[in-house]
Amino acid sequence: MLRLVSITGIALAMVVGFVALSTQMRDDYYMRSRVSEAVSYLNSVAQRELNCGITDMDQSTMKQSTIDQSTMDQSENELQVPKPAVLSSVSYEKTDANAINIVGVFYDVKGESGKLRIKQGRKFTLNCTCSDNTLQCKRGFTDINKNYIPHVGAAKP
User: Fold this and answer.
1) 131 pLDDT band (50/70/90 cuts)?
2) Sequence-ordered list of residues with C-beta below 8 angstroms from that of 151, at least 6 positions apart, any chain
3) What is the pTM of this model?
4) Which residues contact 41 (CB under 8 A, 6 or more apart)?
5) How far is CA 72 from CA 20, 66, 82, in A?
6) Helix (H) and strand (E) counts in the chain
C-alpha cells in the first residue's frame, strides 16, 4: 500500500512539473517573439534614418516627375512599419553620419499566462552602423531578461 501511494505521488509530481515547465516555456517563447518584433522595428528605424540599403528615388527626380506631393507622402507612409504595441517610445541619436543609437522603451508586458514579464520603462538599445549599404547592428544596454533577447549582430543586406 505504501508503494502504491509513493508511486502515485511521484507520478502526480511529474505531471505537475511537466505542466509548469511547459507553461514557462510557452511564456518564454511568447516573450521572445514580442521582443524580436520590437527589435525588428528598431532595425527598420535605423535603416530608414540612415538610408542604408534603401533605393529611393532622388528628391530632385521626384520634383521633376508628374507625381504630386500627396501621392509621395502616401507612399512614404506605406513604407513605414507601425510601432509594436509593446514599445511605449522610441528615440534615437545619430552619433555619426553612418551610425545611430536607438532606444526602445517598453510598456508592461505580460506573458501568455498573465504574469508580468517586462516592467514598464525597461529599455533596449541598438547600436547600428551603415557601411557599404549594409546595416550592421549590435545590442547595446538593456535591462530586460536576457532570455527574451534575440540574436542581434548579423549584417542586414
Assistant:
1) confident
2) none
3) 0.73
4) 81, 83, 84, 87, 90, 104
5) 53, 11, 18
6) 3, 7
Closest to 83 (Cα-Cα) out of 137, 37, 116: 37
- The residue among 124, 118, 119 whose CA lies nearest residue 91 is 124
Residues 111-127: b if buried by 16+ CB within 10 A, e if exposed: beeeeebbeeebebbbb
Q: Residue 101: exposed, middle, or buried by beta-carbon count in 10 A (0-12, 13-18, 19+)? A: middle
Indicate the average pLDDT of the chain.
81
Grid cell for residue 80: 513605414
pLDDT in tens, 86-102: 999 999 999 888 899 99
Residue 105: count of CB within 10 angstroms of its CB? 15
**Cell, residue 61:** 527626380
52-91 residue pLDDT tens: 877 654 443 343 333 444 444 444 554 577 889 999 999 9
Three-state DSSP state, 115: coil
Q: Which residue has the cell 511568447?
A: 30
Write out the three cell numbers for 115.
504574469
